Amino acid sequence: MSFYSTIEQEGVAEFKDKGSKFLAYSFPLTDAKEFKQILQKLKKEHPKAAHFCLAYRIGTDGNNFRSMDDGEPAGSAGKPILGQIDSKEITDVIIIVVRYFGGTLLGVPGLINAYKTAATMALQVVPIVRKPILRKYNLQFDYTQMNEVLVILKQYLCNIISQENQLFTTIKVGIPVERVDEVLYKLANLRNVEVMTFI
Known about the structure:
Blueprint: E1 3-7, E2 11-17, E3 20-28, H1 34-45, E4 51-58, E5 64-68, H2 78-87, E6 93-100, H3 107-124, E7 128-132, E8 134-142, H4 146-155, E9 159-165, E10 168-176, H5 180-188, E11 194-197
Antiparallel strand pairs: 1-7, 2-3, 3-6, 4-5, 4-6, 8-10, 8-11, 9-10
Helix pairs in contact: 2-3
């Protein structure tokens, strides 16, 4: 697998059932630490909402995910939201569904349907994009070799994550998985370019 699908922009959609309002927000998410900031922002925007249920999936190995029911019956909110992320086969995404209680209990089947539908709608309003899976490396080299290194990185559509110029230049780079061997071979042919993998 050399590509994955994700979203690059935020989306919002609304679903109503028996007076309850479900506002579903979809956001790109690449770091689990960021989800708390997104959640706090929505809690400030909706101080009177009853529940903030969510699910996210990050990375391409399938192991980094979470779902939260936030006081709704167990399995009635977070899991249906995660189910919609997985049915679209996307990752690096979080969906938060904000519920305003309308006075009528929906029951577990009703809640599952409401959270699932709201999550689906939040994903329908944003384009799904394909991206290459990247392997990350640290490159260290003399500043005078900058052009040679950048030519190789550009040629193979590598993604420069960060760059520091001091006595030596350090670049954190994401290399598309199917081009790793070629890129490393080319870099190995340059003098004094140190290549280290990083997590």
